[in-house]
Amino acid sequence: MFDGSGEKSPHEPEEFDPNSLGPDIPKAPDPTSQASDIDSAVRGLFWGLVLVANVALMAASLGVMFAVFRDQWLFGGQLVLAGVILGGYVYYRVKTFQSD
Questions:
Q1: Structural domain contains residue 20
Q2: How far apart are CA 96 and CA 100, in angstroms?
Q3: Is the residue at 16 inside a domain?
Q4: pLDDT tens, residue order, the chain (100 aa)
Q5: Where is composition skewed (Basic and acidic residues) in this entry (predicted)?
C-alpha cells in the first residue's frame, strides 16, 4: 500500500459508487412539445388572468400596508377595494371559462 508501487492491496475494498444508492432519477418531459397543444386563446386568457391576479394581490397588499403603517386610510382603502374588484374579476372569468 505505501510501498510506492501504486498497486491496490488485496485487503482494500472496492470503490464506492454513489450513483448506486436510491432510485433512478426520472427525466422531466420536454415543455416545448406540449406548448403547441394548447389553444392560443386559452393560453392568452390564462396569462392575462395571471397578470390581473398579480396586480390584484399587489394592490390589496399595498392598500393594507398604506392603511396600517402610513395611516393613509383613504388611499389604502381604495387600493384594497381595487384589489378586491380585480380579484373578483379573475374569479368571475375563471368560473365562466370552467362552465363553458
A1: no
A2: 7
A3: no
A4: 556 666 777 777 788 777 778 888 888 887 776 666 788 889 999 999 999 999 999 999 999 999 999 999 999 999 999 999 999 999 999 999 999 8
A5: 1-13
